[in-house]
Design goal:
alpha/beta; 7-stranded mixed β-sheet; 3-stranded antiparallel β-sheet
Length: about 400
């Protein structure tokens, strides 16, 4: 109890504890750059890593802002899901062209790292993507590889910061261990990290890329104690096909680990990541098991669904809907552990956790989580083990925060 109280105090100091009477209007990095008439890019040959979800508060695409302000924009680069944000997770993305002449190079095709020959043609790479606050979401992995490429090529790197839509959710989950580093676990932050992309860029420069010339264009009016759909002047736009709103972004860290099992995480339905199931699951029994944990801010309801794509396409699945009843109390990593413990207890032979161990461990950033699940450790022991990781991270990295 004392340990948990101490961590709570740290998290309050990390996230702030008093909301202003009236939140300010948020201006994202691209808005702030536009306000300056892109003065930081004048006279430079520029590349931009972006997609269609990265727009200004007025809805103008970021690349259009640069062109309107006379920036010498040579080409774009797009991450997983493609520039149009319509390619399903894990599928290779091809290059394309926007506005007839502006080429978009893929960073999720033959290579995930910007080509050194392309970087020779520019002076600076700008980065503007909407993250969702979970380490396994690959946009921060793309940013890390781009920062590495720019440091190697002697190019400057500019991050146009954006809100973390789930920043009020306390940092949680295991840290990524070196032996399990991968594209879904590339940055050594907690699984639910509570940071903006600009803050993660500062962390990466501090720990990995000290020679990189980094500039973070900070937001104005940003309050990290508010969820993305509570920020005045900011509209959360879907950065990938299955993260369609802030509600889904909040639940995503609780169900994404199911990708490494035989259980459907709801892809191909109208509620991806908000529900999960399989033909062999008894949703009514499983929902009662999960309700028995008495977790704060969440309710579990039995559901049935038939995926139109993905796992069990066209098959009737029984499972559970994760309903957030109080987002200020909801703990997605705790819910994830409870779901996995319950599934392994009831459906060990069908769950496929051991068969999918490699992918599971890469998502988790460690084998500890899986081993605790398969060993049926108590939920409390799992959470306390992860809290120790988070505690150490917060103590060592308080200086990377850009916003109170």
């Amino acid at each position: 109890m004392i340990k948990r109280f101490g961590l709570l105090i740290l998290l309050l100091l990390w996230s702030g504890c008093v909301l202003s009477a009236e939140a300010a209007v948020v201006r994202t990095g691209i808005d702030m750059l536009d306000d300056s008439l892109c003065s930081g890019l004048r006279g430079k040959k520029v590349a931009l890593i972006t997609n269609a979800a990265a727009v200004t508060s007025e809805g103008e695409p970021g690349y259009a802002v640069l062109l309107r302000n006379g920036v010498d924009l040579r080409f774009l680069m797009a991450p997983e899901h493609g520039f149009s944000v319509d390619v399903e997770a894990g599928k290779r993305v091809s290059g394309t062209v926007v506005q007839d002449t502006l080429k978009v190079h893929s960073l999720y095709g033959a290579s995930k790292k910007p080509d050194a020959r392309l970087l020779e043609t520019v002076d600076l790479v700008a980065f503007d993507l909407q993250d969702v606050g979970a380490r396994c979401y690959t946009y921060i992995s793309t940013m890390k590889l781009a920062m590495e490429a720019c440091e190697e090529a002697g190019k400057s790197f500019m991050v146009l910061d954006r809100p973390n839509p789930i920043s009020p959710v306390a940092p949680s989950g295991f840290m990524a261990e070196k032996d399990f580093e991968s594209f879904v676990s590339a940055v050594d932050v907690p699984f639910v990290h509570g940071l903006t992309i600009g803050e993660i860029a500062q962390f990466l420069q501090k720990t990995r890329f000290r020679k990189l010339q980094l500039q973070v264009v900070r937001m104005a009016g940003y309050d990290r104690r508010l969820f993305g759909d509570e920020l005045r002047g900011f509209t959360f736009r879907s950065p990938s096909p299955n993260i369609r709103n802030v509600e889904t972004a909040i639940v995503y860290p609780a169900t994404v680990m199911l990708e490494a099992t035989t259980v459907s995480e709801g892809r191909g339905t109208d509620a991806p990541f908000l529900q999960f199931g399989a033909p062999y699951i008894r949703g009514d029994e499983l929902s009662r098991q999960l309700a028995g944990y008495a977790l704060p801010g969440v309710a579990f309801r039995a559901v049935e669904f038939t995926p139109r794509s993905g796992k069990f396409k066209g098959e009737r699945c029984s499972g559970v809907r994760v309903a957030v009843t109080d987002r200020t109390l909801f703990e997605p990593f705790t819910v994830s552990a409870a779901i996995l413990l319950s599934l392994h207890r009831s459906y060990k032979e069908k769950l496929g956790l051991e068969k999918g161990a490699d992918f599971f461990d890469r998502l988790a950033g460690t084998s500890r989580f899986r081993r605790m699940i398969t060993g049926q450790a108590s939920l409390r022991n799992i959470i306390e083990a992860a809290e120790r990781d988070v505690d150490l991270f917060i103590r060592n990295n308080g200086d990377i925060r850009l916003y109170p």
